[in-house]
């Protein structure tokens, strides 16, 4: 049954990926009407999250952010599909790294790198980094239940030399690479809510004390990695720029959780600057003090 669903959906996805960008975004506008106005996908969650995170805004101001965030969500979903056939030249025009020299200097240290990113703007097209660097790039992701779609997502990422690994695969892979002296970059999207049973640290995020992921920092400390934050900004529809902000070159010397706390503050700043580009559909504040 799952294979049959894949056979039905795949040609449709491929056709979408072949659309020119102007038509792709017209289609996104149509998808927005269905997702937001007709289905109301996670609208209650999004509305609650924005109210929790931005209580100083009026109801009307929060509603504007809500609608803009759904427009962006639909754009990003179709951009992910577009990645199936997008050329390297095209993605390089649309996703620009402004200070790649910062990353290159970290590679020159001959230590693996923990790249911390947030669910903000376009975290999908960060994979284009892999054609510009020397280290092997791994992106940690949540496995899709349908094995055929999971394989599709992995193959899309592999077009840009990115290797997807699940949470369970991460630590064994880092141990193996460390043992074999394989220098790598590991992408951690660390701004979502961890399982409460595996929480080691709480920090204020948008003014609310919540549990935070500390895995990137702890693994970086244990295996002596440099840690860098990738700040992604949306310039206009379909265009992004990303800049590297160093968190630590010698994280073993940094007090525990200081790197994680810096990361959380940087994500906060992104949201305050343009909240409509954050992924509000996840229950980020489901555990809070």
Describe the protein's topology:
Layout lengths: L1 H16 L3 H19 L3 H11 L5 H24 L5 H7 E3 L2 H9 L4 E5 L18 E6 L5 H12 L3 E5 H13 L4 E6 L12 E4 L2 E4 L3 H8 L3 E11 L2 E10 L9 H16 L16
Parallel strand pairs: 1-9, 2-5, 2-8, 3-4, 3-5
Antiparallel strand pairs: 6-7, 8-9
Question: What report would you give on this structure?
Answer:
This protein is of the alpha/beta class and 289 residues long. The chain contains 10 helices and 9 strands. It has helices at residues 2-17, 21-39, 43-53, 59-82, 88-94, 100-108, 147-158, 167-179, 215-222, 258-273, and strands at 95-97, 113-117, 136-141, 162-166, 184-189, 202-205, 208-211, 226-236, 239-248. The strands form 2 sheets. A 7-stranded mixed sheet has the order 1-9-8-2-5-3-4. Strands 6-7 form a two-stranded antiparallel sheet. Strand 3, helix 7 (147-158) and strand 4 form a beta-alpha-beta unit. Helix 1 (2-17) crosses helix 4 (59-82). The radius of gyration is 19 Å and the shape is globular. It starts with a helix and ends in a 16-residue tail after the last helix.
Key features?
289 residues, 7-stranded mixed beta sheet, alpha/beta, two-stranded antiparallel ribbon, globular
Total of helices: 10
* pLDDT < 50 runs, ≥5 residues: none
Mean pLDDT: 93
Largest sheet report: 7 strands, mixed
As a percent range, the share of strand residues is 15-25%
Output the helix-strand order. HHHHHEHEEHEHEEEHEEH
| Helical content (DSSP H or I, runs of 4+) | 40-55%
